[in-house]
Amino acid sequence: MDKLLLDSAFNSKREFFDSGATRQYSYRIEQLKKLKAAIEQHEQEILDALYADMHKPAFEAFTSEVGIMYEEISYAIKHLKKWMKPKRVSTPLVLHPSRSKIVAEPLGVVLIIGPWNYPFQLLLAPLVGAIAAGNCAIIKPSDNTPNTARVVEKIVSATLDNRLVSVVQGPGSEVGPMLIERYRFNHIFFTGSPNVGKQIMSMASQHLTPVTLELGGKSPAIIHSDADLDVAVKRLVWAKFFNAGQTCVAPDYLLVHKHVKGRVVELAKRYIVDFYGKTPATSESLTHIVNQRRFNALLQYLSNGTVIHGGGSDAEKRFIEPTLLDNVSLDSSVMREEIFGPILPIVEYSHIEEVVPIIRRNRYPLALYLFTKSSKVERFIIERVEFGGGAINNALMHLVNPKLPFGGVGFSGMGSYHGRKSFEAMSHFKSILKTSTIIDPQFRYAPYTERKLSLARLFFR
């Protein structure tokens, strides 16, 4: 990437932000509406690009990449005026005659680095928050999905003010460090692996740039003995193999009560066939693996247990069948590393208390899914396991609600977004105290006396 072009892109954003143009409600709304209209106009191109990059079925591509963006933008447009409005808060008596308020203001120029698994939505959803909050942005698509990256650049460059947003292309291992180390961004939003997230945070610290890190982790699914097994397994199979398991909140492994394990396995096999047919390699409902390196890595996991369903693959198409893996050791790589593919290890337990130490071997998952009818079991898991977010008797679907913040905890990330949280993640909340000059109480001024100290004790209780 030409450093002069990068300099121009960054400096134009800084200059435009400093002009104050992005602070206007009307400007932000205009850009958001333009972005939504452009996505609608280029919808088929987006779907075609996602198919070319990952063989994404149109339904999965639309719902998870395009439709969810319509929802995100529409929600921001509807609520932006309220979000921008200064919030009045109460003022302690000791500060009277004063009024207090909190003013949301944009941060400045932000950098958004997107991943390859949802290369459209996970790049542009944070951009919605950046624009809504009044920031300028440089966005970096993943080079692992080049067709989608080109469509993103086409949409952004043809639609949005180039003083507001620029798209930077190139190898992430080169362009990312160059951007972070060369420029003092006001915020960095990164979605990707924990290992790269650590590098991003380290580089950002040189400029004291705050970061939002949306990472991953081994997200467990738990099917308890009292669950509605048919519904639970149907939802689990759909969620696990959606996008071929290449989802940061995909159920990574299954913890199942030993009394229902046999039935759960039987149902899982049935629903895999129902969804993808007896020859899933010919199914148009399955996404393929993003590249050869990931394909080869996933194949190594198949030797970590007993394949009880699936296991077939096609290197040329980068395709792996939906696979169930039994008899896995907790010390094996498939149970220590985030799988990010269509392989589901199955581990049984006898008592619900046993799942906590198993999950804590890979502590702080991004998501957790519990299938149970027991409110007691539900409370136990929510209170005893640290995780970013999740669902009871469902999977993946918590992401669809813009009123639910999405983000990790511990190793699975820091910060959250979606809906109002996206606006807040990209804003600074400035505290303002405004005091009248009509009266000026004297007790706080020197010389200090015993009477003034007594008054202070009355106020500060």
Task: Please give a structural write-up.
The protein is of the alpha/beta class and 461 residues long. The chain folds into two domains: 231 residues, Aldehyde Dehydrogenase, Chain A, domain 1 (3-Layer(aba) Sandwich); 187 residues, Aldehyde Dehydrogenase, Chain A, domain 2 (3-Layer(aba) Sandwich). Helix content is 41%, strand content 19%. The protein contains 15 helices and 20 strands. The strands form five sheets. It has a seven-stranded mixed sheet with strand order 10-13-14-9-8-15-16, covered by helices on one side. A six-stranded mixed sheet has the order 5-4-3-6-7-18, sandwiched between helices. β1 and β2 form a beta hairpin.
Q: Please, how many domains? A: 2
Uncertain stretches of 5 or more adjacent residues: none
The mean pLDDT is: 96
Integer-rounded radius of gyration? 25 Å
Helix content: 40-55%
**SS field, number of helical segments:** 15
Give the spatial strand order of the biggest sheet: 10-13-14-9-8-15-16
Instruction: Assess the beta-strand content as a share of residues.
Output: 15-25%
CATH architecture of the largest domain: 3-Layer(aba) Sandwich
What's the story with the biggest beta sheet? 7 strands, mixed
CATH topology of the largest domain: Aldehyde Dehydrogenase, Chain A, domain 1
**Assembly state (oligomeric):** single chain
CATH class membership of the largest domain? Alpha Beta
**Termini separation:** 60 Å
The shape is: globular
Number of strands: 20
